[in-house]
Amino acid sequence: MSNVTAPMGGKIIDVKVKAGDVVGENDEVLILEAMKMELPVVAGVSGTVKEIKCKQGDAVEADAVLIVLE
Protein backbone atom coordinates (compact mmCIF):
# COMPACT_ATOMS: atom_id res chain seq x y z
CA MET A 1 0.00 0.00 0.00
CA SER A 2 1.07 3.55 -0.68
CA ASN A 3 -0.18 6.94 0.48
CA VAL A 4 -0.54 10.19 -1.42
CA THR A 5 0.31 12.98 1.03
CA ALA A 6 -0.01 16.76 1.00
CA PRO A 7 3.30 18.38 -0.02
CA MET A 8 2.35 21.45 2.07
CA GLY A 9 -0.58 22.76 4.04
CA GLY A 10 -3.49 24.16 2.07
CA LYS A 11 -7.07 23.69 0.90
CA ILE A 12 -8.39 20.89 -1.34
CA ILE A 13 -9.77 22.48 -4.52
CA ASP A 14 -10.66 19.34 -6.50
CA VAL A 15 -10.41 15.56 -6.07
CA LYS A 16 -9.95 13.99 -9.51
CA VAL A 17 -10.31 10.31 -8.57
CA LYS A 18 -12.78 8.11 -6.72
CA ALA A 19 -12.44 4.84 -4.82
CA GLY A 20 -11.77 1.97 -7.23
CA ASP A 21 -10.07 4.11 -9.90
CA VAL A 22 -6.79 2.82 -11.30
CA VAL A 23 -4.04 5.46 -11.42
CA GLY A 24 -0.57 5.42 -12.92
CA GLU A 25 2.64 6.83 -11.51
CA ASN A 26 2.61 10.65 -11.83
CA ASP A 27 -1.15 10.78 -12.60
CA GLU A 28 -2.79 13.89 -11.15
CA VAL A 29 -5.15 12.84 -8.33
CA LEU A 30 -6.15 16.16 -6.76
CA ILE A 31 -5.56 19.91 -6.73
CA LEU A 32 -4.35 21.67 -3.58
CA GLU A 33 -4.43 25.45 -3.12
CA ALA A 34 -1.45 26.67 -1.14
CA MET A 35 -0.07 30.22 -0.88
CA LYS A 36 -2.63 31.41 -3.46
CA MET A 37 -1.35 28.88 -6.03
CA GLU A 38 -3.05 25.77 -7.40
CA LEU A 39 -0.73 22.80 -6.92
CA PRO A 40 -1.43 19.49 -8.68
CA VAL A 41 -0.78 16.48 -6.45
CA VAL A 42 0.25 13.28 -8.25
CA ALA A 43 0.39 9.61 -7.36
CA GLY A 44 3.93 8.47 -6.56
CA VAL A 45 3.20 4.92 -7.70
CA SER A 46 0.69 3.08 -9.88
CA GLY A 47 -2.22 1.43 -8.10
CA THR A 48 -5.91 1.36 -7.31
CA VAL A 49 -7.52 4.03 -5.15
CA LYS A 50 -8.54 2.26 -1.93
CA GLU A 51 -9.62 5.24 0.18
CA ILE A 52 -9.96 9.01 -0.17
CA LYS A 53 -9.38 10.76 3.15
CA CYS A 54 -10.27 14.31 2.05
CA LYS A 55 -12.95 16.16 0.13
CA GLN A 56 -13.25 19.42 -1.75
CA GLY A 57 -12.99 22.38 0.63
CA ASP A 58 -11.02 20.54 3.36
CA ALA A 59 -8.06 22.32 4.93
CA VAL A 60 -5.09 19.94 5.25
CA GLU A 61 -1.70 20.11 6.90
CA ALA A 62 1.65 19.24 5.32
CA ASP A 63 2.27 15.48 5.09
CA ALA A 64 -1.40 14.64 5.78
CA VAL A 65 -2.51 11.39 4.10
CA LEU A 66 -4.99 12.36 1.37
CA ILE A 67 -5.41 9.17 -0.67
CA VAL A 68 -4.55 5.52 0.02
CA LEU A 69 -3.48 3.38 -2.96
CA GLU A 70 -3.11 -0.39 -3.09
Characterise the protein shown here.
The protein has one domain: Beta Barrel (OB fold (Dihydrolipoamide Acetyltransferase, E2P)). Helices cover 0% and strands 54% of the residues. It has no helices and eight strands. The strands form two sheets. It has a four-stranded antiparallel sheet with strand order 1-8-6-3, with no helix packed on it.
Index terms:
54% strand, 70 residues, OB fold (Dihydrolipoamide Acetyltransferase, E2P), four-stranded antiparallel sheet, single chain, mainly beta, 0% helix
How would you summarize what this structure contains?
With 70 residues, the protein is an all-beta fold. It has strands at 2-5, 10-15, 22-23, 28-34, 37-42, 47-52, 59-60, 65-69.
List the helices and strands and how they pair.
Elements (H helix, E strand, L loop, with lengths): L1 E4 L4 E6 L6 E2 L4 E7 L2 E6 L4 E6 L6 E2 L4 E5 L1
Antiparallel strand pairs: 1-8, 2-4, 2-7, 3-6, 4-5, 6-8
Shape: globular
Which stretches are low in confidence, meaning pLDDT under 50 for 5 or more residues running?
none
Largest sheet properties: 4 strands, antiparallel
Helix-residue proportion: under 10%
